[in-house]
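Handout, section 3.2

Students often ask what a structure token actually looks like in practice. Rather than define it abstractly, here is a full record for Ferric enterobactin transport system permease protein FepG. The first block is the sequence as you would receive it.
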Amino acid sequence: MRLSRRTNVDGRPAIAIAAGSLSLSIETRPTLITLALLLLAAALAVVAMTIGRIPLATGDVLAIIFGQGPGGSAEQVVLNVRLPRMLTGLFVGAALGASGAVFQSISRNALGSPDIIGFTTGSATGALAQIVVFGGSGLLVAASAMGGGVITALVVYTLSVKGGSTSSYRLVLIGIGVGAVLTALNGLMLVKGNLDDAIAANLWMAGSLNARTWIHAWPVTIGTLTILPILALLARPLALMEMGDDVARQLGVNVELVRVSAMILAVLLASLATGSAGPVAFVALAAPQLVRRLVGHGQLAIIGSAAMGALLLVLADLVSQLAPLGIVVPIGRMTGLVGGLYLVWLLTRTKSL
């Protein structure tokens, strides 16, 4: 295996890894930024695990995580309460960040995130139906959220196809319309359900990391770690498709196959995130845009967006835990407050809207 420095055709520095006839080019700046985001997200997660009714030192938390803790109640709190909560937060944020990057690339629109287009609303519809109609909980709610997201994506994609291909603006507009219908359906289920189920559904709709257990953490962790590498392989053809479908076809990209494959994987990520923590707004919208501004050159950085999403969600959770006067703000409401301001700023800065 040989390592060497090189410059890509667009002038960006990269590290070339060669092994026999195989070679891989890793761009330096995006890689360093992604690593920095991952380290910062991990550091904030450790800090967040020190906060609670049983305050712990950072060193104690790290010792317990690496199997060198003293045992007792502190170890039980970290391993059974705070660690699954933080893993859920990290991978929910990562899943939303990567999903947002894919949908913004497919739609060629900064507003093309799964929560704006309506796929997250579809996941919420599936979960609410399980809670209100069938009285399910836990894994059943997560599975129903995935099913609702996938069905919504199929409906939106089918309606947006015209002449054998999809249009980015049709995808966004039809997604917004379908999302509006599903929002009304969600409200109807909350009104018509019995009181206890409606209260449980409302709490779930707020989006929260409270009371997350390993049952919530494992599905989103395993699913995200499985899907992210596949999406990373699709990053280059998706970037070529941003120049236009005709250009991408001339460069050898099977446009519709790549679009449908990336869309299915991104919907699965958004559905896994929604099923684990409830609807969490604007992380999928903001993370890819922030990473593009850090990386530069308008690159599609799926892994970087995942790292930024994890950082944003953990940061929002940390801020909600440190809120004054003991106010408990669900994570979905916190990201909604901050994300709404970011959306207004983005609308005023985007010339194409």
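Discussion prompt for tutorial groups: Residues 16-24 have pLDDT under 50 and may be disordered. How would you have guessed this from the sequence alone?
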